[in-house]
Design goal:
The complex is a heterodimer of chains A (278) and B (230). Chain A has helices at residues 2-36, 50-54, 57-61, 74-83, 112-120, 132-173, 176-184, 189-230, 245-276, and strands at residues 39-43, 66-72, 101-106, 125-129. Chain A has 278 residues and is of the alpha+beta class. Chain A has 2 domains: 2-34 and 136-276, no CATH class; 38-130, Alpha-Beta Plaits (2-Layer Sandwich). Chain B has helices at residues 42-50, 75-79, 97-107, 112-125, 141-153, 171-186, 198-204; strands at residues 2-10, 17-26, 31-35, 57-62, 65-66, 82-85, 159-163, 190-195, 207-212, 215-221. With 230 residues, chain B is an alpha/beta fold. In chain B, β9 and β10 (215-221) form a beta hairpin. Chain B is globular. The chains are: A alpha+beta (278), B alpha/beta (230).
């Protein structure tokens, strides 16, 4: 019976853990993509002096929701532009065609529209280019992923408590006579509950640790498979990476043990509740 | 000590009136038989005493605990003043005789030293000296019931309550058991025995309370006058 309880805790934790880890990875991936979603603020043509243009940087940095501001002079801008094209096209282009500009990264792209208009309000900034529609899509995906993983986690916690409780109930069924006798001779409820709490605790810890090991193995296996496939495709281009398990190990272990203990103890207490009523 | 005044018990689920205006006083040190046919309310009365059921109406006081108002967490304290014996013994099969009795002391947190002293004494008292290491299923029915009595007595309760203790025993064993109850009573414990067995009740000539249909129909010294057609 205790084998069954441990197995159930393990199974639920592994499913729960896998969903959560998947959502972490999707979240990290989106974050990564978000960081590439830069906003470009063009400096007004009237400001031709580079030093004067650079002076706008602190003003931009002072705005809300700004993660980083990088100044790119018109010469650098031309260099970047030119490097993409054939040398034959470079002839006769004057750097003054390009504006001084700032490449800005935002903390939260959900507020991109507000930040964009704030940047446009800065004197000396002529125009701000931002991909609002991309930002919206990213935010939507991220929200959906977090809601789905949260809902799944909650459902699974309830399912594990329910199954755990029923499993312990089966084991306690054989001991209900013993519990009835204890009640009859005047044992307090906490005295009767104690061994079941301890049992639930031990089963929970055991289930939690085993689930952690299994999750580790599973994650390592999947990571290797996925990265193996990805590295041969166009996605290999840097942005697609999975979070290494090592950075997640401690929180996963703590959460698994925590949920294991919670489910075990709660399941144990819940299982004998009916026998204690008399 | 039991004081019941105008006790009524109506079961919520079925609306059955199990007890209807029961008055019953049992003094400290008394020996009382409670008799009556099946369905007369005996078991309900027992459950009121042990706190398994609460009275719908009226007053129930057992060993100075008001059972109609007692808090759930006070029940264990109340039950330690009561020894209970059942028809089916209710021993733990995989525990030895000694452990079955010692169990009751461990449950209430008695120190080991006291348990080692008290358990052999009580086993000797019920006539089971030398059976300490045996398992319940190696004993006869009468002996098993003695183990149950030892368990009920081991925490020195003020009152011993027995629900059909001889229901599974032959007449000779039954009489022996009743004599054991008498001995226990003479040592100072109040004894309440629920039974059907007319011969036993008559043989002991104690106070007999007869209930039927939820009412006390007689309460007299000496014999069983109720309807025995069960």
């Amino acid at each position: 019976m205790s084998f069954a309880s441990v197995t159930i805790i393990m199974a639920c934790l592994i499913i729960m853990g896998s969903v959560t880890l998947l959502s972490f990875n999707i979240d990290a991936l989106i974050k990564n993509l978000e960081d590439r979603n830069e906003v470009v603020a063009f400096v007004d043509d009237a400001v031709t002096d580079e030093a004067e243009a650079r002076a706008l940087q602190p003003e931009l940095e002072a705005l809300d929701n700004i993660m980083s501001v990088e100044f790119i002079s018109r010469d650098e801008a031309m260099e970047n532009f030119m490097s993409k094209y054939d040398s034959s096209l470079r002839e006769g282009i004057d750097p003054t065609v390009f504006r001084h500009r700032f490449v800005v990264h935002l903390n939260d792209i959900a507020q991109m529209a507000e930040t964009k208009s704030a940047m446009e309000g800065v004197v000396g900034i002529a125009k701000v280019k931002a991909h609002l529609e991309y930002a919206k899509a990213f935010v939507t995906v991220r929200n959906i992923v977090s809601v789905v993983s949260l809902v799944l986690t909650i459902i699974l916690v309830f399912v594990s408590i329910f199954i755990m409780s029923n499993t312990i109930k089966l084991t306690t069924f054989g001991r209900r006579e013993e519990i009835a006798i204890m009640k009859m001779v005047g044992a307090t409820n906490s005295f009767i509950r104690l061994p079941f709490v301890v049992e639930g605790l031990v089963l929970g810890l055991l289930g939690g640790s085993l689930a952690f090991l299994a999750e580790w193995g599973l994650y390592a296996l999947i990571t290797r498979r996925v990265m193996g496939t990805v590295s041969n495709s166009i996605l290999s281009e840097s942005f697609f990476t999975l979070i290494p398990f090592k950075t997640l190990a401690l929180p996963v272990l703590v959460v698994f043990l925590g949920i294991g203990v919670f489910v075990g103890v709660f399941g144990g207490v819940n299982a004998i509740r009916n026998y204690l009523k008399v | 000590m039991i004081n019941m005044f105008n006790v009524t018990e109506v079961y919520d689920s079925s609306g059955t009136v199990a007890l209807d205006g029961i008055d019953l006083q049992i003094e400290e040190g008394e020996f009382v038989f409670l008799v009556g046919p099946s369905g007369s309310g005996k078991t309900t009365l027992m459950k009121l005493i042990t706190g398994e059921v609460r009275a719908t109406d009226g007053t129930v006081v057992v060993n100075d605990f008001d059972m109609t108002k007692i808090k759930r967490r006070k029940l264990p304290k109340m039950r330690r003043t009561l020894g209970v014996v059942f028809q089916d013994y209710r021993l733990i099969d995989n525990m030895t005789v000694y452990d079955n009795v010692a169990f009751a002391m461990r449950v209430v947190g008695a120190p080991n030293r006291e348990i080692r002293k008290r358990v052999p004494y009580v086993l000797d008292l019920v006539g089971l000296k030398g059976c300490e290491k045996r398992l319940p299923n190696e004993l006869s029915g009468g002996e098993q019931q003695r183990v149950a009595i030892a368990r009920a007595l081991v925490n020195s309760p003020r009152m011993l309550v027995a629900d059909e203790p001889t229901g599974n025993l032959d007449p000779v064993r039954s009489l022996e058991l009743m004599l054991l109850f008498e001995k226990i009573n003479e040592m100072g414990t109040t004894v309440l025995v629920v039974t059907h067995e007319k011969e036993l009740v008559n043989a002991l000539a104690k106070r007999v309370v007869t209930i039927d249909n939820g009412h006390v129909i007689s309460d007299e010294m000496g014999g069983y006058f109720g309807d025995d057609s069960e």
